[in-house]
Amino acid sequence: MYLQDWDNGMKDKMNMKVIGIGGMGINFVNFMIASGVKKVEYITIDTDSENSGLSHAEKKIFLDTGVKECSREQAERVALQCENQFQELLLGTNILFLISGIGGSTGSGIMPVILEIAKKLKIFTISIVARPFYLEGFETLKIANTGMKKIEKLTDSLIIIPNEKLYNYIDRKEPLGSVYNTVNLIIKEGIEGIVNVLTEVGFMNIDFFDVKAVLHNAKNTIIRVGEGKGDNVVEKIIEQLIENNLFEGKLENAKRILINFTTGPSVSLVDIGKITERISDIVKDKNVNLIWGVVIDPSYDEIRKIKTVVISSV
């Protein structure tokens, strides 16, 4: 954590890409674009030409396997055939976010190939995968487990969304589309939080080395988001951070924590300090490595309005 001593030019040079793979990945990339998250390059990859056509990304890649519904092995094979093109696509990238469902053939087959290329290029990777519902059947779970084992070995940081957990988080009567919009929103806030602390100037800045210190070799990463304003802002935010539990892993088990505060020019350091202290109290390990930064957003001009994004790992 540094007090405005990182050159703004360095921030402008950060190259970050978001790759959405398969249907879930394309849906998420479209959500990010519609939400107006900038300073990242969007790419989608799919083996289904119709799905690929629905992407709003700057770069849409359709991998033709020659069949309508391909196997994991077929998706992997066609991705490997494009290794040189993918390498060229990823050159110069500092942070690569990959997101996909893991129960289908496309995500399980393609994501490990992209991660292998990124590893060779020494790109820092954050992989976000959705684990299938149990009711999707043995074959789907088998494909997911095969893909997961490869991804775990290759990625720097792994964020797992167990679809089964969605039942405990929201009203089961809610439409499936609304459910995934909730998931998309929290993941979006996590990625945007990392992007903002690396590209925006605040009075307490986080740099690339801080992000890597928290997320390197992190296989149980979680994202929590809390936002509030007014006299009870601290309590409101802590309550949301405790409740927003969509991922595998628990905040109380964290060994490393990155906190990004977004607030207005009239921020109270007392509020920032109280929220940080309360998060520390939740964590069992009192020697937790906790890094925090503040981004000033003029649109947060209401008194004591703060958004808190917590990314933690074990």
UniProtKB/TrEMBL annotation:
Tagged with keyword GTP-binding: yes
Domain Tubulin/FtsZ 2-layer sandwich intervals: 204-313
Transmembrane region(s): 18-37, 95-115
InterPro entries membership: Cell_div_FtsZ (IPR000158), FtsZ/CetZ (IPR045061), FtsZ_C (IPR024757), Tub_FtsZ_C (IPR008280), Tubulin/FtsZ_2-layer-sand-dom (IPR018316), Tubulin/FtsZ_GTPase_sf (IPR036525), Tubulin_FtsZ_GTPase (IPR003008)
GO biological process entries: cell division
GO cellular component, one term: cell division site
Protein name as catalogued: Tubulin/FtsZ GTPase
Keywords: GTP-binding, Membrane, Nucleotide-binding, Transmembrane, Transmembrane helix
